[in-house]
Specification:
10 strands; globular; 9 helices; single chain; alpha+beta; 247 residues; five-stranded antiparallel β-sheet; Aminoglycoside 3'-phosphotransferase, Chain: A, domain 2
């Protein structure tokens, strides 16, 4: 039985689950439109991505990409500066490609519900009112209309895989669509501000650091309630609450 593949639960909560069996990932999603979005995005993305093996209602099978994650939220990244620079270059390739017809639902929902999330954090005593107010002020730089780009929409550092110093693949495209390019840059560097210079060196010189910083505040404030309600800990060292305090 030593050679029998084991089922690994990569992530699981009430909305979706991802399982790994050998070199195959199975994504199960209660919202089938997210799988539709991922399949559509994977068909046009101009950077390395997982290969779609098959798709059935509410389930998507993907081949594993080689390499290891660029980093983890709350942990120092072991990747080289060169790897971060090349990640920035890959993101630029994505953002320079023609955007799809649809908007990123993840980003749209985050913006629409931002004020309510901030109020909830204060009303329920999760964060001090002063901390929320300061980060809401920083968020104003991000919450401005901009020409939309083709964005990943949930470009967490765990979603970028490197093999050596090269980008081997970017996973989890269910939130892809049209949106502000700065949001991807901010999501990738959330909790890893020391690598922002590397990412921008690969990306190019026209990104606005104040907008990126604003998106750090928007994303952190906007996801804390969801994380708490789904069994995650935004107060863990280096995670969302620490990001807000560091701002």
């Amino acid at each position: 039985m030593a050679d029998v593949a084991q089922v690994e639960v990569v992530v699981a909560h009430s909305e979706r689950a991802t399982l790994r069996v050998g070199d195959t990932f199975l994504k199960v999603d209660a919202d089938d439109t997210r799988i539709d979005t991922e399949v559509a995005a994977l068909s046009i993305v101009p950077i390395p991505t997982p290969h779609v093996l098959w798709r059935k209602p509410n389930v998507l099978a993907l081949a594993a990409v080689p390499g290891t994650a660029l980093g983890r939220l709350g942990q120092p990244s072991q990747a080289s500066s060169t790897a971060w620079i090349r990640a920035g270059a890959a993101i630029r390739t994505l953002h320079d490609s023609p955007p799809p017809a649809w908007s990123s639902r993840n980003l749209a929902a985050l913006i629409e519900g931002f004020d309510a999330e901030c109020d909830w954090l204060v009303t329920n005593g999760v964060l001090a009112a002063e901390l929320v107010a300061h980060n809401r002020g920083l968020a104003r730089a991000a919450l401005q209309p901009r020409t939309p780009s083709f964005i990943h929409g949930d470009l967490q550092v765990e979603h970028v895989f490197i093999d050596g110093d090269d980008v081997a693949g970017v996973i989890d495209w269910s939130e892809a669509g049209r949106g502000d390019a700065h949001y991807d840059l901010a999501t990738l560097t959330l909790g890893h501000p020391g690598h922002l210079d590397d990412v921008l060196a690969g990306y190019g010189g026209d990104a606005d650091r104040n907008v990126i910083r604003g998106w750090w505040s928007v994303r952190s404030l906007g996801v804390i309630r969801w994380l708490i309600q789904h069994g995650f800990d935004p107060s863990a060292p280096g995670c969302e609450i620490d990001v807000l305090k560091a701002q």
